[in-house]
Amino acid sequence: MTVDAVTRSANVARATLYRHFPSGNDLLAAAFNSLIPPAPTPPAEGSLRDRLIALVLAQAEVVAHAPAMMAAMSWLALGRDLEGLPEPRHNPAADTASITTLRERIAQQYAAPFDAIFDSPEAAELGEVDRSCAIALLIGPLVLGRLSTLPDFDYSECARAAVDGFLHVQRAQHRASAANVESAGA
Q1: 84 in helix, strand or coil?
Q2: Which end of the chain is more exposed for a tag (fewer CB within 10 A), N or C?
Q3: Domains in the chain, CATH or no CATH each
Q4: pLDDT digits over 111-157, tens only?
């Protein structure tokens, strides 16, 4: 796909296209975003566990209905490997230049709801959260369930187990880290 091919197919001038899409990457991002569902929004109310479960269940719904082969192939075709999740964007309009690749934009889009929860005051009990690892632990089992094509895979039960396991381990690590800091200071 080239910009020239798009302008010919859409029967628009190159300047018109660039007025709406500053780069070919932005055009590709818009096309890809039209094919994927938007990231779910986390609930604003509730306990940390309840908010995480609601978000993971919403993600499970997206995963359960995504055409697995197309989604996997599209993701792999998007570009180079990410070194990590892009930093949370608190003002997306102000820093679009900081998210340079399409893959980074998509990763940030789907990470943003988790950022909202992990940046909330209730999440302080978890300590420092490795967000890439957290998302992998919370969403990974759902993706595996989708790829396995098991007919009786229970996304709801899997989501609850993933959240409860993540919270248990994260809280234990935070308590252990706090205890180490206290004993080192003594």
Answers
A1: coil
A2: C
A3: 36-185 (1.10.357)
A4: 899 999 999 999 999 999 999 899 999 998 988 888 887 888 898 99
